[in-house]
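#help-structures
NK: newbie question, is this the right format to request a structure? protein is Short-chain dehydrogenase
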Amino acid sequence: MREIAGRTAFITGGANGIGLGLARALLAEGAKVAIADIRQDSLDAALKTLGSEQVIGLKLDVSSREEFAAAADEAEDRLGPVSLLFNNAGVNLFQTIDESTYDDWDWVLGVNLNGVINGVQTFLPRMKDRGKGGHVVNTGSMAAFLVSPSPGIYTCAKFAVRALSESLRYSLTSHGIGVSLLCPGLVKSNIHASDAIRPQNLEDRGKPVDEAFNAQLAKVHEAGMEPDEVAAKTIEAVRANKFYIFTHPEFKDELKEIFNEILDDFPKGEEAPAHRMVFERGRRENYRRYREASRKAQD
């Protein structure tokens, strides 16, 4: 994806944080941008801040397939065919899995996982039919690799988005559509205030809101990376057709440590029987080819 100018981008969670940073970066590159968000007041404020005739705001609950289809139609009617998709909307629930309810699961997965699925299912058939290429960026997190007791459901969703994105990348190579997984660490954003947009029909919360803890989280997020820096690194990675977009260098040594722990847990001194290796060698070589093809596809 060398040329961004003139293309149309669709960004979920586009009125705050990383989404708003992406909107600014894409407009600066000459793209037309639709920012979608569940909060109308945030959309209004974002549009005023962006101050461009090349951007529109769309109110959208990403967990709704019907709303997603309607928002996609409106974006393309007003700005032209979308070929840059940023599935960025996210919420967080800072509690453990054993403290959670079905409503907690339905809310967090509905936004963080189903929101990505709905974006993919809505826009990819259109991109493929047009044959003009494109790129999809799904916002994961370092929580797609790093696990702690809390936030449990959020981490589960981000692991799933990671797998979804890698599988999708390989299937879209022949269509000239790239896929990237954005894995930021701490970012200056409002995700700590997710409870403010929790839907009333999913209000059964496993653990009461801890206002003091949320206040501390707000202070922590103020120390996060600026969204514009995340956006700049994301645009650079899209141009280079990278799969993983790691924006925060402080996690590299930790990932190395975790990967080494994983390798250490494999049985020592054992070899797989020959009849299994017949299959595994073929699967391994296919996987290598998928990775190589996806890296070369847009060179």
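mod (FA): yep, format's fine, and the tokens are attached above. The two ends are 9 Å apart (CA to CA).
NK: thank you!
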